[in-house]
Structures are given as structure tokens and as C-alpha cells.
User: Fold 3-isopropylmalate dehydrogenase from Tanacetum coccineum.
Amino acid sequence: KRRYNITLLPGDGIGPEVISVAKNVLNLAASVEGIEFKFNEKLTGGAALDATGVPLPEETLAAAKQSDAVLLGAIGGYKWDKNEKHLKPETGLLQLREGLEVFANLRPTSVLPQLVDASTLKKEVAEGVNLMVVRELTGGIYFGKPRGFGTNENGEEIGFNTEVYAAYEIDRIARIAFETARKRSGKLCSVDKANVLEASMFWRKRVIAIAEEYPDVELSHMYVDNAAMQLIRNPKQFDTIVTNNIFGDILSDEASMITGSIGMLPSASLGASGPGLFEPIHGSAPDIAGQDKANPLATILSAAMLLKYGLGEVKAAERIELAVLDTLNRGFRTGDIYSAGNKLVGCKEIGEEVLKSV
Amino acid sequence: KRRYNITLLPGDGIGPEVISVAKNVLNLAASVEGIEFKFNEKLTGGAALDATGVPLPEETLAAAKQSDAVLLGAIGGYKWDKNEKHLKPETGLLQLREGLEVFANLRPTSVLPQLVDASTLKKEVAEGVNLMVVRELTGGIYFGKPRGFGTNENGEEIGFNTEVYAAYEIDRIARIAFETARKRSGKLCSVDKANVLEASMFWRKRVIAIAEEYPDVELSHMYVDNAAMQLIRNPKQFDTIVTNNIFGDILSDEASMITGSIGMLPSASLGASGPGLFEPIHGSAPDIAGQDKANPLATILSAAMLLKYGLGEVKAAERIELAVLDTLNRGFRTGDIYSAGNKLVGCKEIGEEVLKSV
Ligand SMILES: CC(C)[C@H](C(=O)O)[C@@H](O)C(=O)O
Ligand SMILES: CC(C)[C@H](C(=O)O)[C@@H](O)C(=O)O
Assistant:
């Protein structure tokens, strides 16, 4: 038997509900494929704040680092929105990404035939969309220094941040993106604002340099404002997109909404070595927390990414992916993806159905 | 007769074609309303680079400053894409914005009933969209210092920019946004990334402070990644959006694409005093330049904004707006907005039709 330690970080809002369902699915798929998991549940985000006073307790980071992969539910909520920076749930997530050095965030977006009607885009525009955003996750304006509050030379109060990228940071994310594109359609689009920002000019220069290692991948460049338009105009033109932390935050969320069903979308955050971090792209949805209404499929699909990208357990991953499709084909839907003619179920029940399909 | 000096900056690509048409429309609407224009045409962007070696000749900026309003076509093109920063056409545009101190960029997006089919969004999602993005235009990461290239403490090459806002910069754009919202539906959404960036936390703090002056306007806040999603999910939830320079660049382009017809969308850039800068939001479209295929309606509508916001000539502005609608109602379409059953015409011909409707 292959044995792995998995850190579970349920987090806030609907996090605990979707993690509990995903854990069962992981366990079953694993046992069928001869894998054994040891789960270690830890506090993070608002839950950690309330219990320990910090959004990422040392114990949580230590456990995560020692494990083989980390599965996270969701973090944040209105309750902590006005907290100071170091006491925000989001800060815990950023510390976790930094602590695990997971610099590459992979966000696949595909419009499933079963759910194409959920898109607010016209059917002919949405159907067949299948793209991957590779977002740099541990650099740029999220982490750049100097940052903070102060006064300028005229004594005016200011708030400021630094967008900064070093060559090695761009090179390593570019390589992940080229590898990703190579395994997909062989087309990579690098998104920047090189007509205005030096950080983007440097980004583009390094991406072009790394491209020499990947002569089989077709590289293009697009300005971020144009990319935001093209994702609506014709999302099918994209296969793999690579971009910096903040543009990736914006564009990957925009891209995900093309599906109309962000309750379906997983993500993987990977480093050079060490455990990866896997989480649904949706938020903690405090308005429906604890009501058994959440859609756990994004977390279940994140568990599949954990198996595939985190542990190299491709067969178990595919088993879960197929189980999710089978559940959809059998007509089960949570409220967020419900349409007439299907069966409306809650978080737990759709989880049971996925288990049947595993 | 009321007399005004207008600086015309045709710029690059399709710029000269659309400006020439818009000039005729301006002239006719003016003469009907008892206005007289003196036009002064100057070089900018790539055209200025080729002729003078710089993207914004001093003479152009001086003329613009002395005039009552500036109408710009478009700037940029593949030809200059690899130029160094100070020799990029875009740099000329940024220098112009900075030189005129036009800190408030107003970008209206509305889906016209005549063109609702041009949207890639479903009809029920797109129809009735009518929103205004108020983008800060002379601050933030576009202009912040320090910026450039260098090495970090490990001797690694880096590229960097500074996102910085001073209180007065936020306060003045917030006031414009509140005034704008007040004249519209009374709803203002401020977009930031205050869960991560200090510059955004400061932005939010100042916007909330200024809100006290506008108790009749309903203020909400949204993170930029969520805003990028919500614009696709349900654009009708928005009326007026205010945001910083870079988020405004991205979101206003995204919002404009909701219409599917960016050849229709104008913009106004205003300062505290001095001439405003008016331009279509589309680019220079080098691929169709000189072929009489461009859609001049965005520039014509920018001329209407010039009359309204720049000169306070509301009647002449409305005359132009109605003429554009009348031309559409009569079935005239350029290629970018063509649909079966209408009359496909070129840039000049649709301009002639607008003149008939003025
Ligand atoms: C919660 C927030 C800090 C985070 C981010 O901005 O990275 C989220 O939006 C995401 O994309 O995972
Ligand atoms: C051309 C470019 C510098 C400009 C910007 O980023 O402001 C353009 O995209 C715009 O939005 O007017």
C-alpha cells in the first residue's frame, strides 16, 4: 500500500462542509487504488483567528510542511473583514502559500457540456471552453516590499505597495507554464502590461528567454486589459495563460465565471518541492454556511488535482473526475448549478452520489 | 456665437479616419447650435515618433493645454511595440494625461437595444446594462516611483513598479465618482483589493471618509477579482464603479466588451480645471487602418462627451447622441457591428449618415 499524510484545512464558512465530503471521496478512491491516507486536520483563517488569535498558527504551517499534500476548504468571512492586515483570514492564506513556497497556481476552467447553460455567455461562445490559467502565486505586488502607509514628500498621507519580480521568479513560473502548455495544446499566452510597467517589460523579456527551451510551444503575448476583453469575446482562443500574481487573481476569477458554475472549479498550487496546496477557487460563502447547501464538487475536484499533481496518483485522480461527471450525468445538482429537469440535492447528498460513482 | 479651440490628435492606425469623420459631425452639430470651433491638428503617438522622434512633442502638449478640449483618435501599433519605454506611443498618451492633469477617466458602457445581439452574453444578461466606470487616471502604478530595473539584495535582476496613492488623489476621484453616481442611480461601488494591498486599504479608508459628504449615495465595496466575475455574472447589478488606474484599465475594458461593440464606446478624461481629453476606448487597429473599415461612432460619441463634459454644451451633445442612434435605427452598420438585415457601410459613409441625422 502507498501511504500519504494529508493536511486538511477546513477553514471558514462552507469550508468544513465541503472538506468533510471531499475527505470521504478521497478515502474511497484511495482504497480502491491501493492507497492509504492519514488525515491531519488543522486550523486556518478565521477559525484559527478565533481559536488562537492568528490566522495561520505555527502548528498548522509545520503540519502542512511535513505532510505530502494540503487540501483547503475556504477562508474568510464578513466577521473578520475589518480586521487589521495581520489579523485577516486572507493573511493566513498568503502566509501558507509563502510558507509552502507554492509559487505556481494552476487554475483550469472548462465548460462541461452538462452545465453549459449555467454560463451567462451564449452557448456557442461558452461551449468547449477549456483553458488553464497559470498564476504566479508567491511574488509580485502581493509580497513586494516596501509596502505600507506613510507620508510623501509633501506630507500627504499615502498607502503603497511594490510590484517586483526577480528573474528566477519569472523563469520558474514560465517553465511550469511552458510544461503545462506542452501537455495541452502547445499554445501559451503570457499576459502583462508591458506597454506601461517595467515589471511587465521584465516579465516579458524573461518569458521570451525561457521560450527558447520550449521551441515546440507557440508563445504569444497579450496586454492584461485586452485579455480581460478577449476572455469574454472569444474564450476559446486561449489554451494556457501565464501571468503575474495580481493579474492572475483577476483573470482567473473572470475566466472561471465563463463557466457560470464556480462551485465546480478546483485549483492546485505547487512549489519546486514539498507539498502542494489544493483548494476550490470559490470563497467561504458565509451566507449559506452550515446549511448543507454548498457545492462540494470543486473541493472534490481539488482532491483529484491533489492526487494527480501532488502525489502523482493519476489513476485515483481520474477515478474521482469520472465519478463527478457520472454524478452530473445522473442528474444530481446542488442549488448553484441546478436547472430544470435535474435533481436538487444538498452538499452531503451529492457527496453520497459521488461516492456511489467512484 | 460661442467659440472654442479644439485640439485634434488623430494619432495612429485608424485614428486619422475616425477623427476626420468626428470633426465633420462636431462642426455641423456646432453650427446648428450656434457654436464655432477652431480646430488645431497636432501629432501624437507613433505618428509623432516617426516625425519628431518623441511620442508627445512639446508643441502638441502646449497646444492641447491652451485649447478648450482635446479629441484623440487612437495611438500605438505593432511597428513601435518593441521600442524602449520612452519611445513607445503609449508613453506619449501617458504624458498627455499627466500633462493635462486629467485624473478622472469616465467610461460609460451601455448595451444599446439596436446592438444587443453583438454581445457574447446572453440577451437577458446583456440587455439594459448601463454602467459607468470612473477610473483614476494619473496616479497609482502607472506613475508611481520608484520604478525601473535593477538588482535585489541577492544580486538577481529585477523589474519593479510602485502602486501608491496619496489622500488627495483618492479624495478627488472619489468626489467625481460620488457626483457621477448621484446624477445616475445613486449607487456607487468602489473596487479594490483591500484584503491584500495596503494601497487598497488606504483607498477604501479615504472613499469611506469622502462618502460622508454624499449621504444620498449608496456606497458598496468589492474586491477586484470578484468584480471581474460579477461583471460577467450579472452586469446589471452595477451602476457607477470607481477604482484605481490599473484595476480601472482592466475592468473598464472588460465592462466594455459586455456590449460586444467596443467600436461604439467613448471616454472622457477630466481634470480639476483645464481642457479635458476625449477619446474612443478602442485601439488603433493597425490591421484595418486606411481601409475605410473603422467604426467612427465611438469617436463621434467621444465628441459628444467633449461637448457635454468638456464645454458644457449639453444640447449639441444630445444632438450628436441622437444622430448616432438615428443612424443605427436606419440600419447603417460598419463591419464590427454588422448583423444580417442591416446595411454594411464604411467609415466615411456611416459618417455621412450621421451628418444627415444631426
Ligand atoms: C483571498 C485572497 C487573498 C486570494 C488572493 O487574492 O490570492 C483569493 O482571491 C484567491 O485568488 O485565492
Ligand atoms: C494604451 C495604454 C497605455 C492605455 C492604458 O493602459 O491606460 C489604454 O489601455 C487605455 O486604457 O487607455
User: Anything to note?
Assistant: The two ends of chain B are 19 Å apart (CA to CA). Chain B touches chain A through 63 residues (CB under 8 Å). Chain B has two domains: 1-102+263-358, 130-258. The longest strand of chain B covers residues 2-11.
